[in-house]
Amino acid sequence: MKQIETIKTGKNYSAVSVGKMDEIIEHVLPIAEMDYYDLQPTPPVLLHFDLMADEVTSNHI
User: Fold this and answer.
1) Cα 21–26–30 angle (5° rounding)?
2) Whether the Cβ atoms of residue 49 and residue 33 lie closer than 8 Å to each other
3) Exposed, middle or buried: residue 49 (CB in 10 Å: 0-12, 13-18, 19+)?
């Protein structure tokens, strides 16, 4: 397990180091579902991507 080293802390932030960039590739956050909103057209468009089922659904908000 990687160690997270705190470099500096402030009132509203913390700066941390997780090691070398080429060692970070072992941490993966898979995206299974996501939503896309396009607010320019009337009515706005919502696209829902389900990457596990390989489906895209389109709805109006």
Assistant:
1) 110
2) yes
3) middle
Tell me the per-residue pLDDT of 12-29, one tens digit each, with 9 for 90 and over. 888 988 777 776 666 666
- Long-range contact list for 8-14, CB < 8 A, 24+ apart? none
User: Is the separation of the CB atoms in 32 and 50 below 8 Å?
Assistant: yes
What are the Cα distances from residue 4, in Å, to 9, 14, 30?
13, 11, 21
Q: What is the mean pLDDT of the chain?
A: 80
Cα-only R_g, the chain: 19
Which residue type occupies 41? P
Q: How far apart are CA 16 and CA 4, in angstroms?
A: 7
